[in-house]
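User: Here's a chain of 295 residues. Predict its fold as tokens.
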Amino acid sequence: MDMERILYIRKRYLPMDHDFPFVIRRWVHQPSDSGLHFLHCRDFWKIVYVISGTGKLDINGKSYEIEAGSVLFVRPDDETNYRIDSSRLEIYNLCFLPELIASRLDFLKNDYRFFSIFSDDFSMSSELARIFYIQDSAKSLHGLFRSLLAEYRGDAVNREELIRAMMIELLIRLQRLGIRTFLGDKETNVVWMVRNYIDCNFAGKVELNALTKRVGLSRSRLCAVFRKVTGHCISDELSLRRLREAAKLLTTTTLPVAQICFRCGFNDVSLFYRHFHRRFHTTPLLFRRNPSAEA
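Assistant: Prediction complete.
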């Protein structure tokens, strides 16, 4: 479907202008509904809140069970389709463009990359998907959607600013709920949590005690679970992440090897050379000249 068709559909079903890129509607779907495929193509972000009914929402081929209280994020490129099990499915469709809240994103703490979903280079992994899919939200969240709909339909003074503020509140509350759900099964998610922490901190000092507090497991339990799943220890994971960054800098910059060494978190050049040779079977300088030969 071309962009002209997408814009036509949006104008008809979700009237949204770029001066105030926000729409919220209450929809009722039935199993006999046809033509829902038009929602596969969009140029906006969407948050779906299920008011009542049961069914499944397929997002990029993965099926999510939905019922009253379910909340899901849908990105512009996501392909979606409803499969309704009950006699009807009542939902809120909250649609917006990131411009609506862009001025506030830099002030929000981005735990578990929640707000990175609005970045152009964001990649949704199966682990991250669980943060953006909330099976059972608080009842108060329903009230917030209801208040957003009432404010959107009204014309009170400072209507748009209040909607922006309410959107920030909604996103923060969804972030908290998503992370709480995600952390519920610590052992299942421990590898992703460790890798996420290392990915954010590899260039500096990574302390295991800080990591254990973040994950919520004892030092010995954390190390045992990580080794059981990956086959190697956390220090090896950290070294691997640093070496991958070093290889990237060697092939994309002209920085001196010593500078790359320290930038990637190593504090000893000779140690960096030994680790690099063990991983890539060549020296950093030879790798820079021919990165494909040994990689």
